[in-house]
Amino acid sequence: xxxxxxLKKQYVSFEGGPGGGVLGVSFEIVQGELFTLLGPSxxxxxxxxxxxxxxxxxxxxxxxxxxxxxxxxxxxxxxxMYDRDIGMVFQSYAIWPHMSVFENAxxxxxxxxxxxxxxxxIETKTMATLDMVGLSEFAKRPSTQLxxxxxxxxxxxxxxxxxxxxxxxxxxxxxxxxxxxxxxxIELKRLQRETGVTAxxxxxxxxxxxxxxxxxxxxxxGRIVQIGAPKExxxxxxxxxxxxxxxxxxxxKGTVVGDVAAEAVATVKTALGMLDGFxxxxxRAGQAAALVVRPEHIAIISRGTAGDxxxxxxxLSGRVTRETYLGEIVEYLVAVSGGEILVRTSSTSDxxxxxxxxxxxxxxxxxxxxEA
Length: 372
Ligand SMILES: Nc1ncnc2c1ncn2[C@@H]1O[C@H](COP(=O)(O)OP(=O)(O)OP(=O)(O)O)[C@@H](O)[C@H]1O
Ligand SMILES: [Mg+2]
What we know:
Layout: E1 2-12, E2 18-29, E3 34-38, H1 45-53, E4 60-65, E5 68-72, E6 77-78, E7 86-89, H2 101-111, H3 119-132, H4 148-161, E8 166-170, H5 178-195, E9 198-203, H6 206-212, E10 215-220, E11 223-228, H7 230-235, H8 240-245, E12 250-256, E13 264-270, E14 273-279, E15 288-293, E16 299-302, E17 313-325, E18 329-336, E19 339-346, E20 356-362, E21 367-368
Parallel strand pairs: 3-9, 3-10, 7-8, 8-9
Antiparallel strand pairs: 1-2, 1-4, 4-5, 5-6, 10-11, 12-13, 12-15, 13-14, 15-21, 16-20, 17-18, 17-20, 18-19
Helix pairs in contact: 2-3, 2-4, 3-4
Adenosine-5'-triphosphate binds at residues 11, 19-21, 39, 41-47, 91, 204.
């Protein structure tokens, strides 16, 4: 539905040299999908959205929406922003201070050139969206009398009332407190599903990205480094950057012992000893490999007790050197021969600092990175 090909937009730095921006980004989104751009601050997420919206003229590349070319650097095509059927919620929310809450949310329906609605229909639709974001009781208020988080919810409501073919959401929940944020991301996902609107969602919050996205594109320094469903990105990160960005991880570097076929478990020689990992791509003996083990995939037991795991598993012994209580879970740092391992487990665990422990983690959950 949306196709972005080799999009480039490089800014000039403050000193006059080449600055940051987007250095060749390509992706495709299908109808009704919620696609997320996830990455650290400054990696080019907002620049990508602004180029799609038509707020920024790219240096090169091609953008098409539902078969219509919006931008083509080579053919010098550039459809102006107001002729693109795209709605956007900005990182810094923009609501109109001279209008009431209701008028802000109703505005896109009043000015729509494609849909002529009666006053009654506008009223019903607007109140329904205000209700969704929890602002219906404030409908008559001047919009300046809302808190920052309420203004952000209003901006979200306004974007949804418009029902554009593509909705761009740039960190739309960034000003909300943690609890409201979690509640709103569920609401947002539900609303997106119900309206069937295609959306690009921008965030630097990995938990948020995993929770709401159909697919995630992880960005770093102006480029997309991996695209996949949340489970793929989390369970099969392709690079060290993605593995680290998407949650805490243990990264164990080494070399492959024998030749490895694709989609197979194989042994890697690491500083911690021989460890078995799952390889999605083939490798030759002696090639470098990096294994990723999530802290929550490691079972921690008192040394000497039997731990049962199904299938081939890695076992290490060590001593707990740090115990951090985090509420529902507890985090242990375990010193093992040749390094340290981070483990997370349910806080019902009776292991404490200084204990001698065994660590067990299944080979199939010990993932070899594609690029190492
Ligand atoms: N108008 C501009 N002039 C010069 N450089 C810019 C301009 N806008 C953005 N940049 C630079 O381009 C890079 C990408 O910026 P962008 O706003 O796309 O990042 P982002 O991924 O949205 O980050 P954040 O999560 O902090 O919002 C940054 O290095 C930024 O400093
Ligand atoms: Mg941004």
